Structure formats: C-alpha cells, structure tokens
Amino acid sequence: xxxxxxxxxxxxxxxxxxxxxxxxxxxxxxxxxxxxxxxxxxxxxxxxxxxxxxxxxxxxxxxxxxxxxxxxxxxxxxxxxxxxxxxxxxxxxxxxxxxxxxxxxxxxxxxxxxxxxxxxxxxxxxxxxxxxxxxxxxxxxxxxxxxxxxxxxxxxxxxxxxxxxxxxxxxxxxxxxxxxxxxxxxxxxxxxxxxxxxxxxxxxxxxxxxxxxxxxxxxxxxxxxxxxxxxxxxxxxxxxxxxxxxxxxxxxx
Length: 253
Hints:
Blueprint: H1 2-15, H2 18-38, E1 45-48, E2 51-54, H3 55-85, H4 87-93, H5 98-125, H6 139-163, H7 167-183, H8 196-202, H9 206-219, H10 226-249
Antiparallel strand pairs: 1-2
Helix pairs in contact: 1-5, 2-3, 2-5, 3-5, 3-6, 3-7, 3-9, 5-6, 6-9, 6-10, 9-10
C-alpha cells in the first residue's frame, strides 16, 4: 500500500497544474451557472426518477459525472507519457510492480473525481441546489457512482493508451469517444422526450449510469432501472478493469 501511495503522490504532483484546475473545476462551474440558468427559460424543471428538480440542479449533478469521466483521462495520459519518456521502465525497476502502477492510477483519478465533485457540490449547495431536495442518507450512492465511473473510464483510458501508437491517434480516439459519452447520455438533458434511437443509445452509454446513480445519491430519485444500471455499471467496471490490468501485465518494457 505504501508503494501505491507514493505513486499516487507522484501522479498528483505531475498532473495538477493551472490548466488542469481550470478545465476540471472552473469550466464545470461556469457551465453550471451560465448554461444552467440560461436554459431555465425553456426548461423549467426536469423529472429525475420520482423527483422534479430545476434545470440548474439537474445540470450541476450531471457535471459531477462529466468530471469523473474527464478526470479519468489522466490515467491514460500518465501511462502514455511514462512510456514515451522512459519513466514506465524506471518505475518498474524500483520497488514497484505493475499492480502498484495501475492501482495508483485508478486511485489518483478516483481522488480527483471525489475532490472535484466535492467542490461542485459545495459551490452548488447555496445556489443551484438551494431549492433541490438534497437527500443526505443517499449521498454514499453518489460516492459509489464516482468510484465506479472512475474505474470504468480510467481503465478505458489505460486500454486506449496501451493500444495507440502515436499521440495524435491517442488524443483523437479519446476525444471522439468522450464526445459520444458526454452528449449521448443524461448528463446535459433527460432521456424523456428524445427520439427512440437516441434514447436507446443513452442506455448503452456507461456515463448515463454514472450520472443516474449520482443523481439518486443527491436527490433520492429512484427510477425503475436504477438497480439494473448500478449492477451493469459495477459488472462493466470490473470487466474493463480486468482487461486493462491484463494488457498492462503483458505490456513490453
């Protein structure tokens, strides 16, 4: 565990800088307060399971899930940078194993996801969440959604970073995939009322499950598919984490 924490400290030091803080914290807050209130003129309230919330609260809860996905890009970027600069070999020569390495990457993005979620939540409590029915007993489900989302998207980013051979292909693949995940999901708008094909696409998107679990944690907004979404996301996260670990174990130094 000590080795994992040492690598986590190194990852945080290497990744947290001003541009990262702007993208991870400032951008979501600006989007919440600008787009959230701007769209209230056409979207007064949104049904979230059995609870109705106004659009700023809806988008704020969605941005927590969006940030989880965004922070997971760090896992792939770290591995890509380490391989390109020879740090991967240097780390494995030291008192670290590949298991330590992948565990530290997943733990890093989980910590960043939780921290950014905490900042968004605190900034929203007295503003966009002031009229929302926040449910303290179900908050642990929000944490669960963040952890499962970090594992899934972090493992996905690791797989892409291992498979891609150039910086351009890595960035193109990640950005294209994440663009689909972000906008074909319930992050920015509800699934009710969208065309059938788009609605079905929402529910093959793991970010939809992450966001729905987070919203349940915030608003206790249980829906008919919530349990299925949680089980599916947990199983998918376990499978993709196993695949990422297997690929990293076979990666040539």
